Predict the structure.
Amino acid sequence: MAEQKAHDNGEWTINRLLAWTRQYFESHGIDEPRLSAELLLAKVLDCPKIQLYTRFNETPTNEQRTAFRELVKAAVEHHPIAYLVGRKEFYSLDFLVTSDVLIPRPETELLVEHALAWCDANQHEEYHLLDVGTGSGCIAVTMTKRNPVVLAVATDISEAALRVARQNAELHQVTKRIHWIQADLLNLPPDDVNANRLFDLILSNPPYVAEKDRESLPENVRRYEPSAALFSGDDGLDAYRRIAADIRRHLRPHGALLLEIGIDQANDVEALFATAGLELVARHKDLAGIERALQFTLPA
Ligand code: GLN
């Protein structure tokens, strides 16, 4: 016991803070308790998360501990960790996030992965991409960052979201290759140069949660993430219906449409786009084996 005391002096070292917070988060049902504790402490210490490991025996100042305590308190009240730290990793890139945008999720990486694969399989000198409802900009920014000949147009109805998306484009130095439009899904303003353009590739993670499922969403999602990015009518399919109605004005023949879908929506969404004249190319599954994205093409 005495030895133990001599070892950590009873001080709130980084190591102890992380161990204590991990357990506290776990008992409050916070996802990824250890990672969440590290992200919050790294935020307060203003250092990369990885540095915590070389500073285990350091004792943060009283001010830092107070700031950390506030964040931990907010987290157990279900404030999303990404909003508390202002960042979220997506496709190995760092994205700025505020509560004006949906937090980028791993399932959306599936869209990007298959869109990049489509580019590799269909060699063009450049690719004109449309990202519908861009939010944080994670799809448009990642696509332009990962493929240097992608030129993107990205829409969002929310001006506040577009501000965040623009900052992410600046952060990743792809500003020159993305044109942002404030628009409701595919309702591009008629005077915009892109209003009548046909795109090679259209990607979207639209809102798709049914209103009736609102109460079943986790509290951190339901209370803090933007409703406009989540909910889409009684059955969750309204945004797809509206995209399907406009899609042929914007997708070029042989182009690709990739849509993220909610669990169990594959058949309904496939039917909507089949009615619009598109052909299903693939249903893509996530790591858990759940169909999470549909890929279509427009026959010539
Ligand atoms: N995948 C999100 C969720 O489960 C929903 C995102 C969306 O509606 N596009 O909360």
User: Anything to note?
Assistant: The radius of gyration is 22 Å. Residues 243 and 250 are 10 Å apart (CA to CA). The pocket of glutamine is lined by residues 105, 205, 207-209, 217, 221, 230 (CB under 6 Å).
